Amino acid sequence: MSRAGALALKQPPEFEPAAPRPVPAAPVIAARGLSLTYPTADGPVHALSDVDLAVAPGEFVSFIGPSGCGKTTLLRCVADLERPTGGELTVNGVGAEAARLRRDYGFVFQAPALYPWRTIARNVALPLEIFGLPRAERRERVARYLDLVQLSGFANKFPWQLSGGMQQRASIARALCFDPKLLLMDEPFGALDEIVRDHLNAQLLELWRKTAKTVLFVTHSIPEAVYLSTRVVVMSPRPGRIVDIVDCTALGRERPLEIRETPEFLRLGQRVREGLRAGHAYDA
Ligand SMILES: Nc1ncnc2c1ncn2[C@@H]1O[C@H](COP(=O)(O)OP(=O)(O)OP(=O)(O)O)[C@@H](O)[C@H]1O
């Protein structure tokens, strides 16, 4: 080997900075050993028992389980509408009360809960009025979020002039208009027929992809849960607890409604169903 060749070999390898390791994002929701027992005249009701869950930013997490397994109670704890009796809970790194005071989340209930005497635009604007935003900014935001839920042409209608699905879309716009990072949805489409529900599921998924919100979503429907979610939390009652967490990310982020006929979708649905059955057997 020539001297030049030997020197070349001895050169230290060119410095390449190591690729930065992905830093795990701080969870939006962190529950550790979370429990809530309601004292009732018939004795204590263990609505939640020892719930451990971490939800990362941008996840869509559904909660499914039979009536009374604590789905609503869990959402209400996150919203600081209930105080846990045990364990720890943080929302965006702070306690639930601090998160509520910081307006960290929007809440969508099963019923649209719109004021019948206010137009759709003025219903959506309500939280912005309460927060004291100037009129021009309120107008701009209401227009933007009505457009996002495809209700632009209905701003001046009253709730009773809209279908149930449209009313629910208005309540989603109202929950989003102050731009919370977290959206809490308690069976928002439970009262709607299948066709409308399919349509709203597809729209919600699109909205989630556009806005990068973190969503916690309560449902009784296995296909709805699998279709919408990055993860499905399967719960069981007496005491309310998590029995399985099903990862649905293999379905990707773009999900046409036809995805529900694919083998992967059916497999995930089956896994959720088995979790529900196992939780039931535990009770027996
Ligand atoms: N304020 C309350 N006082 C006493 N018990 C309550 C209260 N709220 C809920 N519970 C009980 O706590 C348990 C969990 O209720 P929760 O509403 O969280 O269940 P869920 O899974 O959301 O049910 P559903 O699917 O019917 O909405 C149930 O047994 C319920 O009866």
UniProtKB/TrEMBL annotation:
Residue span(s) of domain ABC transporter: 31-262
GO molecular function: ATP binding
Membrane-spanning ranges: none
Keyword list, A-Z: ATP-binding, Nucleotide-binding, Transport
InterPro entries, sorted: AAA+_ATPase, ABC_transporter-like_ATP-bd, ABC_transporter-like_CS, ABC_transporter_ATP-bind, P-loop_NTPase
Family, similarity comment: Belongs to the ABC transporter superfamily.
Name by which UniProt lists this protein: ABC transporter ATP-binding protein
Gene source species: Methylorubrum rhodesianum
Lineage: Bacteria, Pseudomonadati, Pseudomonadota, Alphaproteobacteria, Hyphomicrobiales
